[in-house]
Amino acid sequence: MVEELSERIWLKGYRRLGYFPKLKDPPDAVVEPVRDVLNFPASVAAEVDAVRTAKRQRDLVRKRLGVEYSAAQARGIAEGDRTGRPG
């Protein structure tokens, strides 16, 4: 249940924000509607225990949305180059 909730929150977050929100402390306004749709009890929290699980879930969301991840392009954007070219 926890993994499914986390994956769905990432899917919703990526669709709306264009990036994966942190699961450390997601807003209740995001978690509660997703939890309700999945019919999960309020005790189920959105969290990921392992780095590999988080990577796999993000990869699944990208695949579902048809998004390709490029570390070089992401680094370029983070450095202020909107084209995504590093350096």
Give a short overview.
With 87 residues, this protein is mainly alpha-helical. Helix content is 56%, strand content 0%.
Explain this structure:
This protein is an all-alpha fold. The protein has helices at residues 2-17, 28-37, 51-65, 71-78. The longest helix has 16 residues, at 2-17. The model has no long low-confidence stretch (mean pLDDT 81).
What is the number of helical segments per DSSP (H or I, 4+ residues)?
A: 4
Shape: elongated
Q: Supply the number of structural domains.
A: 1
Give the DSSP E fraction (strand runs of 2 or more residues). Answer: under 5%
Radius of gyration: 14 Å
Would you identify the regions where 5 or more consecutive residues have pLDDT less than 50?
none
Summarize the amount of helix as a percent range.
55-70%
Q: Order of SSEs, N→C?
A: HHHH
Mean pLDDT: 81
Structural class: mainly alpha
Q: Major beta sheet, specifics? A: none
Number of strands: 0
- State the separation between the terminal residues, measured CA to CA: 42 Å
Which features would summarize this protein structure in a list?
elongated, 87 residues, single chain, mainly alpha
Record the SSE blueprint.
Blueprint: H1 2-17, H2 28-37, H3 51-65, H4 71-78
Organism: Nonomuraea glycinis
Protein name: DUF4158 domain-containing protein
